[in-house]
Amino acid sequence: MIHLVIDRGNSACKWAFFELDETHPDVTAEPLEVITTVSGDMLPDKYFEIYQPQAGIYASVGPADAAFVDALRQRIPHFFAYGLHMKMPIRNAYQSPATLGLDRLAAAVGAWTLAPGKASLIIDMGTAITYDFMSADGVYQGGNIAPGIWLRLKVLHEETSALPLVEAQADFLPMGVDTQSAIRAGVMQGIWHEVEGYLRQYQQSEENLTCFLTGGDISYFESRIKKPIFARKNLVLIGLNRILYDNVQKSL
After folding, report:
1. Catalytic residue status for 246
2. Helix axis angle, 179-205 relative to 149-158, nearest 10°?
3. In this predicted structure, what is the pLDDT of residue 195?
4. Rounded to 10 degrees, what is the CA torsion of 61, 64, 70, 72?
5. DSSP 24-57
6. How far apart are CA 110 and CA 141, in angstroms?
7. pLDDT band at 2 (very low <50, low <70, confident <90, very high)
8. Sheet bearing 55-60, strands edge to edge
9. Contact 135, 116 (CB under 8 A)
10. Where is average pLDDT lowest: 3-12, 13-22, 41-50, 60-69?
11. Mean pLDDT, the chain, as a whole number?
12. To which H or E segment does residue 235 belong?
């Protein structure tokens, strides 16, 4: 069976195709292919013809586009619009679930799928950096939200009179030697030490902590972090595929 997982963000939309053996389904597998389109654009017909998905899930950071959802529903036999109403393999202890970014919950499901029965710290590095914690008994406990690389660089430029806008780089210095390298080192070193601090904090209370690093900016830091950590850029997609699988099974 082919699953189509759609993760629609503010500017881009990811379309991921997963293959599940109906006899021995592996919900931990990476997608066969991930295609990125402009958010709001429908995937070209050729991909539907090649893969012929039998089940699909649509997740969006904003309100669902009714026409977009209807078009998908007509193409995919078992189709779900992702939401809190769906069956989940984890419990959610967030006190205001309606305000929780569902991508954070999907990442937690991805972590639980890849490391069931283990406490997990999930670090998602995008426009914002989120730090989320999953306890060993399968309960999403919540997390923190911090500005990401681009936001920090942008604010330093826009909210000061003299600081330039600089680009992020993976080979940042320990200490800057001019204004540009000082800004870059300040932001990048700050995030690096922030990540290391969260790891130390949770490893003190969770002896067998598993840490997952995901998101578009993980390439800047994954080689620098010395503690055991799993870099899985498709963690949210894997979580959405697990939720889709569970709900397809429930509906059969």
Report:
1. no
2. 140
3. 94
4. 0
5. S--TTPPPSEEEEEETTPPPPHHHHHHH--SEEE
6. 15
7. very high
8. 33-38, 12-19, 2-8, 55-60, 78-81
9. no
10. 60-69
11. 92
12. helix 235-251
Among residues 7, 103, 132, 217, the one annotated as catalytic is 103
Say if pTM beats, i.e. exceeds, 0.85: yes
Q: Do 218 and 125 contact (CB within 8 A), yes or no?
A: yes
**6-28 per-position pLDDT tens digit:** 998 877 899 999 999 888 899 99
pLDDT tens per residue, range 68-96: 899 999 999 999 999 889 999 999 999 99
d(CA 63, CA 202): 34
The token duo for 13 is 């939309």
Element (H, E) at 18: strand 12-19
Residue 18 corresponds to which tokens in the numbers above? 């997963």
User: What's at 12, amino acid-wise?
Assistant: A
Rounded mean pLDDT, 107-114: 97
Q: pLDDT band at residue 33, thresholds of 50, 70 and 90?
A: very high
* Cβ contacts of 159 within 8 Å, gap of 6 or more: none
Residue type, 205: S
Give the C-alpha separation, 98 to 44, whole Å: 33
- Give the per-residue pLDDT at 14: 94
Name the 3-class secondary structure at 152: helix
Q: Residue 192 has which token pair?
A: 């690096």
- Judged on CB neighbours under 10 Å (0-12, 13-18, 19+), 166 is middle
Q: What whole-number distance in Å separates Cα of residue 84 and Cα of residue 82?
A: 7
Q: What is the pLDDT of residues 210-238, one digit of tens each?
A: 999 999 898 898 888 777 788 899 999 99
Q: Cα–Cα distance between 196 and 224 in angstroms, integer? A: 10
